[in-house]
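Are you able to produce any protein sequence you like plus the matching backbone structure tokens because I've never seen that pairing?
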Amino acid sequence: MMHDIFGQDSSLTDAAALQDWNAVQMGVLAHAAVTADHLGAVLKSAPEFALAHAIKGLSLLMLGRRELLPTAQEALRDAKAQYEGALPRERKYVDALENWLAGRPSQAIRRMEEVLDMFPQDTLAMKLSHGIRFILGDPEGMRASVERVIPAYAPDHAGRGYLLGCHSFSLEETGEFERAANAGRQALWMAPDDAWGLHAVAHVHDMTGNAKSGLEWLHGREEAWAHCNNFRYHVWWHKALMHLDLGQMDEALALYDTEVRKDKTDDYRDISNATSLLARLELEGVNAGTRWEELSELCANRTEDGSLIFADLHYLLALTGHRKEDAHKLVQRIHADAEQGGSEACERMGNPGCAAADGLEAFGDGNYKSAFNHLSAARGGMQLAGGSHAQRDVFERITIDAGLRAGQLDAVEAILDDRRAKRGGAEDNYALARRTLIAEGRNAPGAASVPAE
């Protein structure tokens, strides 16, 4: 019996195929651009390896694109054809793919947790559980999953650094900022290419309103994310946000042009980086120029996707105010999916999707009172949209600015207070500027705060 890099039994019998498989696993952990090449090599040399087919299918589902579903179904078919020859641990990955294709990614998480029950040192299962929980907006689950397997990892385990990177991110998302920063630094020390751990520390700086230290953290560490797939654009996005918070708008726009949108893809993760950055800039009065045109054209082609509400809401950012017919078409489709139900994706179209989409459309139309009412109604469920606190903050900012423009000063102040509490008592320059606007609004002659409806 052969063993993989994490010490797990493998049904592979060819040493070269195992070497490629180990590279696949390490590539998944490091978000490496070469991972797909290694996976292709495994599938070519060992087509009987069900686990590789399952990882292909799961990776496709994580891309959140409806047109990739048939290819993911083919991967499941190929995996099931080799199911009997797979080890019990490997079969769980196939089952996870089947669960997700049936519309229940939470069941796919359960399959990965079942692997970890028996094989806590299977770092690939840990990473997949972590990643799917991230998509579903489950930070407490991310943290619990990682923390229950940490004791099984010896200091020399090949996956320990990446495990700590996942722990860092889950700590940050659950409000343990100091511990998160320490874990992320240790992760990068153990695994210098752990871009996830590095970016977790960037998240800490974002949440604690310390953009200057955040830039210092990222400066000189570019090699930690240079090897990445499109995740590298997301790390550059973090750097751009730090410049924005410091009022360095030209620097933020330059990073948008040279790094964040270096490649004009329509991957929803790249679109979310771009649309959320431009939206933040425009809230600060910066004219994004023609940059919206490229994004809105791409997003107009994604209105019927419906794979992830997180993606749809970011597509909507590019359409509202720019291509209103397409924006309304997307909002209608979100409502239709919510009414249809039948999958966890549709459940999230209903909550928080419908209210959030209605609010964003109203904001783009300049109807700020309606926008504030809808977006405020969505706030309680926005965690379910998935992504991170930092990513979802663009919707929080639009909610706050809608409220300010509608004169809802007391309600906006309450949101800012809640936002500050979730950030450990820290405030960034965005929040401080809005508090100044509230004070000015209250001190204006004849001013009166309008209660939220």
About this structure: Residues 449-453 have pLDDT under 50 and may be disordered.
